[in-house]
Amino acid sequence: MLWASLLALAAVVQALPSGELEQRQGGVTMLRFGCAQVVIDRLDPLVNPGSIPSPHVHQIVGGNGFNASMTTGDVSNTASCTTCAFSEDFSNYWTANLYFKARNGTYKRVPQLGAARQFNDDYSTKIGGGILVYYVSAQPGKITAFKPGFRMLVGDPTSRSRKDSTLKRQNCFRCYTGPNFGGDVSAPCQDAKIDTEALPTGPCKGGIRSNILFPTCWDGKNLDSPNHQDHIAYPTTGPATFLSLGGSCPSTHPVRIPQLMYEVVWDTTAFNNKAEWPADGSQPFYFSYGDNTGYGQHADYVFGWKGDSLQKAMDTSNCMGAKCGTLKTQAIDAGKKCSVNRVVQEDHDGWIKELPGINMGNMGNMQQA
């Protein structure tokens, strides 16, 4: 996807009116880097702080300050290492896990791959699962980096149907049509012919890619809100698509923040035999909160960059990938050594009878997380 993203970014720059690029404070920047898993656990300090266990399993990457009660404060002061390529990034990024439901009713966790093969770096090809993280500054005006203590949630885990036609492209899936990430063309969530709001309904020979885009506008005051969403907003004009100019922020949320995007590649290749799918032919992949539609895909973020390192990156023009100005990086071996001890002891690798924390026969009583 690298070449496609760069082409899209070049198109954005070329489309700018004369003189506008010079008016941008920070130019056009796209940090893109991998983070290995720091732990897989049934904890959610954002939505279910202090709950052990939380309602469903998550994959978490980033700093080793992650715990069930990290509700306030600067997490960069509580972490001593990070699984991310940028060694000054102690943030935590997490999503729900994906499971395959076999015809006999048992479940198995779907592993994650690195990035597509176009990204030939260690944090793409050697992380053994995890999340690819993007911070994009491709909007008009100054981009203000997140502040210590900032956190947010995007998506609605209770959604099970198509969103309205004005969807701001915050959530999409791409079915890799061939091995080696076949069909990985164009920037994420841009092409309705290859990107879908729902999980793909047929086997994907090369796996399934998830992309989750966070809002790009902030109220400038609150580091969090009761639902972890009201302090942020999408633009009021123009689509909030990847590498877009983003349109105008609402008056209630006037501060432009980096466009944060997660990318997860789910390695579904071991589960492509339709003879093992449910007998009724239904879509067999379930997120850990009991959703096999994909409409409930969501993601959590807790900011934890050291000092003003992220702001410096956003102010540096034309940074691409996992190198930017004076930002420090670390070797993949160091990143993979960083970990957090699992708190809830559950089987994450074998076949299980039900999703942890979810009674599949009583999904109506599912707790939101």
Describe this structure in words.
The protein is mainly beta and 369 residues long. The chain has one domain. The chain is built from five helices and 19 strands. Strands 1, 7, 8, 10, 11, 12, 16 and 19 form an eight-stranded mixed beta sheet that branches. The chain has a five-stranded antiparallel beta sheet with strand order 2-3-4-18-9, with no helix packed on it. Strand 5 and strand 6 form a beta hairpin. The relative contact order is 0.24. The C terminus is likely disordered. It comes from Neoarthrinium moseri. This is DUF1996 domain-containing protein. Keywords: Signal.
Give a quick account of the main beta sheet: strands, pairing sense, barrel closure.
8 strands, mixed
Structural class: mainly beta
Query: From the alpha-carbon coordinates, what is the Rg to the nearest angstrom?
Result: 19 Å
Order of helices and strands: HHEEEEEEEHEEEEEEEEEEEHEH
What low-confidence regions span 5 or more consecutive residues with pLDDT below 50?
10-26, 360-369
User: What number of domains?
Assistant: 1
| Count of helix runs | 5
C-alpha end-to-end distance: 30 Å
User: What is the approximate shape?
Assistant: globular
Number of strands: 19
Signal peptide: 1-15
Keywords: Signal
InterPro entries: DUF1996
Protein name: DUF1996 domain-containing protein
